[in-house]
Each structure stands twice: as C-alpha cells, then as structure tokens.
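Thread title: Can someone regenerate the structure for this chain?

I was given the following input by a collaborator and told the matching structure tokens would be attached. They weren't. Posting the sequence so someone can regenerate them.
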Amino acid sequence: MQRAGEQISGTGAAARYAEAVPRYTSYPTAPHFHAGVTGETFRGWLAETGQGDDLSLYVHIPFCDRLCWFCACHTKMTRRYEPVAAFLDALFCEICTVGDILDGRGRVRALHFGGGSPTMLRADDIVRLGSALKTAFNFADNAEISVELDPNDMDEARFDALAEIGMTRASLGVQDFDPQVQKAINREQTFEQTKAVVDGVRARGVRSVNLDLLYGLPHQTLQSVADTIRQALTLSPDRIALFGYAHVPWFKKHQTMIDEAWLPGPEERFEQQQETARIIREAGYETIGLDHFAKPDDPLATAARQGRLFRNFQGYTEDACRTLIGLGPSSVSRLPQGYAQNTPASAQYERTVESGDLATVRGFALSVEDHARAWVIERLMCDFAFSGDEAVRRFGECGRRIVAEARARLQEPGSAAGLVEEAGVFTVREEARPLVRSTAALFDQYLKQGGARHSAAV
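Best answer:
Regenerated them for you:
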C-alpha cells in the first residue's frame, strides 16, 4: 500500500481547514465558464437529445421576500408580486422554447424547484407552472418532484398547490434555531414554524423531508449548533444536509452585513462539523459523501451503499440522469456535450426568452480529458475513492495519465491530502475525508487559472 498526505490534526491543521477550494458540484467549476458557449450552442446540444434519454429539470425562482445575509444564491428581494408575475410570463416562454426544441424526446425523471424562494409563488401560479412543465416535457410516471420551502411563506393554499403538482420531496432551509444566530443572518424562523411545515407536507403524502443546516455561522458555538441538530432530529427528517457557511462577501455583497468578528475560526468550524456529524450518526443516520446524511432505508443511502451516488448543483443525489436542463435566470444546464448557463440578469433574461431565443450567456464544452477528470472528482466526492482500472477502461489514454498523475502525487509527502492506493484503488483515508474537496482539487487542471476565489475547505 502507498500512502501520502498529512494528518488533519496538529500543527498546520487550521491552515488546511481554511484552504480555499471549490465545492465541486460541477467540473470544470462555474468560474471557468466562458462566453464561447451561446444560445445557439445550447440549442444544438438540446437537439441531439435521444428519444429514450432520461432528463432532470431544475427551475430557478430568483426572488425572495427577504434577503438572508448568509445566502450566496442568485436572488433578489421584492415585496411586490408584479416582478414575480412578469418573470413567470418569461419563464413560460423559455419552457415552451426548450420543449419545442426537444420535440417530445427525453423523459423527465426528476424536477427540482430552487431559488430564491419557490414558495414565494402564489398557489395558483404554482399550479400553472407545474402544468406548463408537464405540457412541454415528457414526464415519467414516477418522476421525483422536489421543492425548496421557506417555512415563512407557507399557508394552506400553497400546501395544497404543491400537493396538486405532485411534490414528492420537501427541502426546508433551517440553518440554525438559535435566535441570536438567526438575527445575525436575518433569517428568523422558529422551531414551531418549521415543525408545522414538516407536518403539513407529510399530511399531504410527501414521503421525503430534507432539512438544510449550517455550521460556521455568526455566534454559533459548539453547544448551540449541537442544540440545533438535536432539535432538528426530533422532526425525524429523512435527509439532512449539513453545510459549512461559505463567507464570500467579495461575491455576495450582502454578506458584508455579517460582522466577521462574529464568525467561528477554522478550528472551531471543524469542531462544529465533527460534533454535529457525530450526533446525526448516533441518531441512526448514514453519512452520504461529505455533508449529507440519510436514514438507512432512504434511496440516497441505498445509492451510496451500492456505489450509485452522484453529485450535481443541488448536492448529492441518486439521480443518474446525465442531462440536467436549467430553466430561469442564472440556472445551469449540464449535458454530455458540456455546460450552459443562463444570464443572471432578470431583465436580459426576460427580453431574450420572450423573443423565442435561449438565455445562455456562457458555458463550457467538455473534452474527453474534462469528462475523465470530472468522473474522478465526482467519485472522490461521492465514494472517497476511485478505481484506476475503471478510469482507464472508461477514458483510455486520459485515464492512464490521471492514474499516473495520482501515483506521482503519492511520492510527494504531504501533497496528496490523505490519498492512499491499494490494489489499484485510490482512497481518501478516513481521518482526511472532511478535507476531500482539497483531495479532489489535486485533479482540477483549471484550479489555478483565472484567479477565482472559493470558500473554506471545512
């Protein structure tokens, strides 16, 4: 067995925790997208979709009725519904255009509504949107439909509308239940509100509930974040996503509303991550990749045990569709040919799609080398391991180069971030897995190009 890399405790550990690396929900990552991919490029890629291809859809709703200061999503705050209604008119145009290009080809296996706040839509508009999508696209009978819910938006009419469009999974943003933390991030939401929404969706037949929680937030302590986790567990969520707060004020100016003196340091963040993960595991949940957890009978846990876990812009998923079509401003589509991203500017998006064009403004066409490195990075992020033989079988000479590169790294003490090789399989050691993003970064040939800035590794 060959080993490389340092322990993640002891001297220099804080620097490792604070290392800035991508989250690797795509490869290449979004900072490397460029304007060479246009609407016509994307149209051509869509036209190559096969009759029997499986598809996923992502619909981005770029509005909130309040601005959470921790958020790094593409969204804007509005207290008026008129801009939302105007956006929906444009979104319906984009849905029709993409549906016409596909012309019945492909079958939708998964649909995800994100934002922003999808539940800011009025109940009748939720139903209209669901109907428009099912008219334009060919849905499988058992398609999964997941929606990100803001408990502050929910009422009986919205519960019923989401049930009418067939929601199968609800994802609730919780972040933290501590009032001091909530005030510091402008996200006030009581435990009772959250529980009422969990009860409301389950009463309407939703069989999967996910809670999003954060560590590393302002004023969080080891005790307070543990208290939030224990409260969340009383709701018996099917899945938990436990993310480290990404403080990127150079990218999202509203994060400057958070005083950096209130933020826990790198070692405190690591302790919070380790303690909260321990509490969740002791409650009977299985660890999924870097930052997700699921009940043992959840499809995500089953997929992880069977080596069928994947990663996309929504995080870890059992969705095996390699074609994901993004709709709405800033949304990203991923196809076998590459990535295509819509303009994030709402006014430009509306003008473009209402004229019948696609709103793509940038993207990335994938080479064989890109596909090979994307596969290695995804396997590391999902399984903490990749097979050298499988890399060669799938990608030929590109796979051989990457395997040789990995072996060369193993000869450089401290350079492979806990990577070891045994019987041709490269694995991230157990104690180094919280830093798997750093391990994945070793295979990113674009990382040092362009000067992009990223969030902390832990």
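The chain has a mean pLDDT of 91.
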